[in-house]
Write a structure and sequence with these properties.
This protein is of the alpha+beta class and 159 residues long. The protein folds into two domains: 86 residues; 57 residues, 2-Layer Sandwich (CRO Repressor). It has seven helices and four strands. The chain has a four-stranded antiparallel beta sheet with strand order 2-1-3-4. Strand 3 and strand 4 form a beta hairpin. Helix 1 packs antiparallel against helix 3 and helix 1 crosses helix 4. The longest helix is centred in the middle third of the chain and has 24 residues. The termini are far apart. 13% of the residues are buried. The C terminus is likely disordered.
Protein backbone atom coordinates (compact mmCIF):
# COMPACT_ATOMS: atom_id res chain seq x y z
CA UNK A 1 0.00 0.00 0.00
CA UNK A 2 2.96 2.30 0.62
CA UNK A 3 3.92 2.13 -3.07
CA UNK A 4 0.40 3.09 -4.15
CA UNK A 5 0.43 6.17 -1.89
CA UNK A 6 3.91 7.23 -3.08
CA UNK A 7 2.86 6.70 -6.70
CA UNK A 8 -0.25 8.85 -6.19
CA UNK A 9 1.79 11.63 -4.58
CA UNK A 10 4.37 11.57 -7.39
CA UNK A 11 1.59 11.51 -10.00
CA UNK A 12 0.03 14.65 -8.53
CA UNK A 13 3.45 16.30 -8.29
CA UNK A 14 4.19 15.53 -11.97
CA UNK A 15 0.78 16.84 -12.99
CA UNK A 16 1.48 20.06 -11.08
CA UNK A 17 4.92 20.41 -12.66
CA UNK A 18 3.57 19.98 -16.20
CA UNK A 19 0.83 22.55 -15.53
CA UNK A 20 3.43 24.92 -14.08
CA UNK A 21 5.72 24.43 -17.09
CA UNK A 22 3.05 25.97 -19.28
CA UNK A 23 1.42 25.04 -22.53
CA UNK A 24 3.92 26.59 -24.85
CA UNK A 25 6.78 24.48 -23.54
CA UNK A 26 4.75 21.29 -23.70
CA UNK A 27 3.75 21.83 -27.33
CA UNK A 28 7.29 21.28 -28.60
CA UNK A 29 10.11 20.12 -26.34
CA UNK A 30 13.69 21.16 -26.90
CA UNK A 31 16.42 18.52 -26.75
CA UNK A 32 17.36 19.60 -23.24
CA UNK A 33 13.76 19.48 -22.01
CA UNK A 34 13.28 16.00 -23.47
CA UNK A 35 16.41 14.76 -21.69
CA UNK A 36 15.26 16.49 -18.51
CA UNK A 37 11.86 14.76 -18.61
CA UNK A 38 13.43 11.37 -19.31
CA UNK A 39 15.83 11.84 -16.40
CA UNK A 40 12.96 12.99 -14.23
CA UNK A 41 11.16 9.74 -15.08
CA UNK A 42 14.08 7.71 -13.75
CA UNK A 43 14.23 9.80 -10.58
CA UNK A 44 10.48 9.41 -10.10
CA UNK A 45 10.74 5.64 -10.44
CA UNK A 46 13.36 5.51 -7.71
CA UNK A 47 11.25 7.72 -5.44
CA UNK A 48 8.12 5.66 -5.98
CA UNK A 49 9.56 2.21 -5.40
CA UNK A 50 12.31 3.19 -2.91
CA UNK A 51 14.89 0.74 -4.23
CA UNK A 52 12.29 -2.04 -4.38
CA UNK A 53 13.05 -3.63 -7.74
CA UNK A 54 10.36 -6.28 -7.55
CA UNK A 55 7.86 -6.81 -10.32
CA UNK A 56 5.05 -6.24 -7.82
CA UNK A 57 6.34 -2.76 -7.00
CA UNK A 58 6.61 -1.86 -10.68
CA UNK A 59 3.11 -3.17 -11.44
CA UNK A 60 1.63 -1.28 -8.46
CA UNK A 61 3.35 1.99 -9.41
CA UNK A 62 2.39 1.82 -13.10
CA UNK A 63 -1.09 0.60 -12.18
CA UNK A 64 -1.60 3.56 -9.84
CA UNK A 65 -0.51 6.02 -12.56
CA UNK A 66 -2.85 4.30 -15.02
CA UNK A 67 -5.85 4.31 -12.68
CA UNK A 68 -5.30 7.99 -11.84
CA UNK A 69 -4.96 8.90 -15.54
CA UNK A 70 -8.18 7.04 -16.39
CA UNK A 71 -9.95 8.64 -13.40
CA UNK A 72 -8.92 12.13 -14.51
CA UNK A 73 -10.07 11.42 -18.08
CA UNK A 74 -13.41 10.11 -16.81
CA UNK A 75 -13.96 13.16 -14.56
CA UNK A 76 -12.98 15.51 -17.42
CA UNK A 77 -15.48 13.85 -19.77
CA UNK A 78 -18.32 14.31 -17.25
CA UNK A 79 -17.75 17.82 -15.86
CA UNK A 80 -16.31 20.99 -17.43
CA UNK A 81 -14.75 22.62 -14.35
CA UNK A 82 -12.21 19.85 -13.63
CA UNK A 83 -11.30 19.75 -17.35
CA UNK A 84 -10.53 23.46 -17.26
CA UNK A 85 -8.28 22.89 -14.26
CA UNK A 86 -6.47 19.80 -15.54
CA UNK A 87 -6.17 20.68 -19.24
CA UNK A 88 -6.63 24.44 -19.42
CA UNK A 89 -8.59 26.47 -21.94
CA UNK A 90 -7.67 27.99 -25.30
CA UNK A 91 -6.41 31.57 -25.08
CA UNK A 92 -6.48 34.27 -27.77
CA UNK A 93 -2.93 35.61 -28.26
CA UNK A 94 -3.49 37.83 -31.32
CA UNK A 95 -6.53 39.43 -32.86
CA UNK A 96 -7.07 41.64 -35.90
CA UNK A 97 -3.35 41.87 -36.65
CA UNK A 98 -2.45 42.89 -33.11
CA UNK A 99 -0.37 40.66 -30.84
CA UNK A 100 -1.63 40.63 -27.25
CA UNK A 101 1.74 40.97 -25.51
CA UNK A 102 0.29 40.80 -21.99
CA UNK A 103 -1.34 37.45 -22.81
CA UNK A 104 1.90 36.15 -24.37
CA UNK A 105 3.76 37.14 -21.20
CA UNK A 106 1.15 35.52 -18.92
CA UNK A 107 1.25 32.29 -20.95
CA UNK A 108 5.08 32.37 -21.10
CA UNK A 109 5.02 32.31 -24.90
CA UNK A 110 7.69 34.27 -26.71
CA UNK A 111 6.90 36.57 -29.62
CA UNK A 112 9.51 34.71 -31.66
CA UNK A 113 7.66 31.43 -31.02
CA UNK A 114 4.39 32.97 -32.15
CA UNK A 115 5.98 34.38 -35.30
CA UNK A 116 7.73 31.09 -36.09
CA UNK A 117 4.43 29.20 -35.77
CA UNK A 118 2.76 31.77 -38.04
CA UNK A 119 5.50 31.38 -40.65
CA UNK A 120 5.02 27.62 -40.42
CA UNK A 121 1.40 28.20 -41.47
CA UNK A 122 2.45 30.40 -44.40
CA UNK A 123 1.62 33.69 -42.68
CA UNK A 124 4.14 36.36 -43.66
CA UNK A 125 2.94 39.35 -41.60
CA UNK A 126 1.22 39.74 -38.25
CA UNK A 127 -1.29 42.03 -39.96
CA UNK A 128 -2.62 38.96 -41.83
CA UNK A 129 -3.68 37.28 -38.58
CA UNK A 130 -7.38 37.70 -37.84
CA UNK A 131 -7.16 35.44 -34.80
CA UNK A 132 -4.37 33.41 -33.16
CA UNK A 133 -5.24 30.98 -30.39
CA UNK A 134 -2.93 29.13 -28.02
CA UNK A 135 -4.75 25.83 -27.66
CA UNK A 136 -4.91 23.89 -24.39
CA UNK A 137 -2.44 21.34 -25.81
CA UNK A 138 0.17 24.03 -26.54
CA UNK A 139 -0.39 24.25 -30.30
CA UNK A 140 -1.12 27.55 -32.02
CA UNK A 141 -4.12 27.92 -34.35
CA UNK A 142 -4.28 30.79 -36.84
CA UNK A 143 -7.21 32.27 -38.73
CA UNK A 144 -6.57 34.76 -41.50
CA UNK A 145 -8.59 36.85 -43.93
CA UNK A 146 -12.35 37.33 -43.90
CA UNK A 147 -14.63 34.74 -42.36
CA UNK A 148 -16.60 34.51 -45.58
CA UNK A 149 -13.56 33.81 -47.75
CA UNK A 150 -13.01 30.29 -46.46
CA UNK A 151 -13.80 27.48 -48.89
CA UNK A 152 -14.18 27.31 -52.66
CA UNK A 153 -15.69 29.93 -54.93
CA UNK A 154 -19.36 29.43 -55.65
CA UNK A 155 -18.70 29.16 -59.39
CA UNK A 156 -15.30 27.73 -60.22
CA UNK A 157 -13.60 29.31 -63.18
CA UNK A 158 -13.05 27.05 -66.16
CA UNK A 159 -9.79 27.77 -67.79
Amino acid sequence: MDIVIRAAVVFLFLWFITRLAGRSTLGELSSFELILFITMGDLVAEGVVQQDYSTTAAVLAVGTFTVLTIAISWVNSRWRRPAVMTHGVPVVVATDGQVLHDVLHRERLGLDDLLAAARGQGIERVAEIRLAILEANGQLSFFTGDQGSAGANEKPSVG
